[in-house]
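A sample copied in:

***
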Amino acid sequence: MPSSRTPRSRLHHAEPAASPGPPAAAALPPGGSGALPLAGAVAGGAALALESVVNGRLGEHTGSVSAAAWSNTLSLCVAAAAALFLTGLRPAFAALSAALRSRALRPWHCLGGLAGGSMVLTQALTAAALGPAPYTLALVSGQTLCGVAVDHLGLGPGAPRRATRRRLAGGLLAVCAVAFPVLAAPDADRTVALAVLPFLAGCALSWQMAVNGRVDEAAGKHPYPAVLFSFATGTALMAAALAVLTALSELPAPRSGPLWHYTGGLLGCVVVLSAVLTVRRIGVLAAGLGMISGQVLGSLALGPLLGEPPAHQGTVAVGALLLIGAAVLAAPAGDRPRPDPLTPPVAEHPFDGRGK
């Protein structure tokens, strides 16, 4: 009898540790159901297309650098005011500081706003001259091409993904997607020169999404530090550019314009927040492709509203179809992600609560 009771007692005490509930929940991929995050990325992309139009119109009234500086400053003020209504900020910044001290996060990860500031500047410089659709195609082609490199290098949260031939072909097709409508424009030489800037801004946008995702992950998946740092560094860049421009030449006299021309900073908050929230759930590439879809659809919808001719819209639609094909090719297809040396596996810390 004593020998038969001992195994039962041990089995009884071992049952709670063998319960599959918590480990299974911790082992789930962070993306979970991707429909809602993908919809958020599409909405963020549509907001970015509208932001390009707004900042481009503002640049016509106030000058490109002044418009970019105003947009970033408004975004920073909104982000700073949001701190009054948010909770969990102290633990988030403490976790971020600990990640920086341990070198799991590098200081340059916190500089994503430099890319965002440069993108806002290209909006003010070229969006009005190019039109919403050509500007968007140039932006997202750079975003698609460089998104493959960003994923291969593992700059964003999660594991790196190999740059296969299929995905490289998608990136090159993205370049063709913007080249077709740009070269078909009546003043192709001027359009090509203008399209280079949003193309480079799209490359920077992929990097910004990746490093902001890193900051969000290091802050215990609290989006506020990534959003705040993004707008703070972008505003600092625009302030420096404005100071240099003021020292070298006289600023153009601002002209009055409609109130909606000054709302680009509010749309910028929507864009950055949606990027931070969706990258943590579905990864840099999927979030980038969702934003690309939203940008293309938004720019095609804005074209007729802004009086663009139907022939031009048809050319842009062909470019949009090529871009969709590029996005499909650039998406991962069965390539196994390589382990990320900076991010420990989730299974090693199933009960630490950092993923919640």
The longest helix spans residues 264-305.
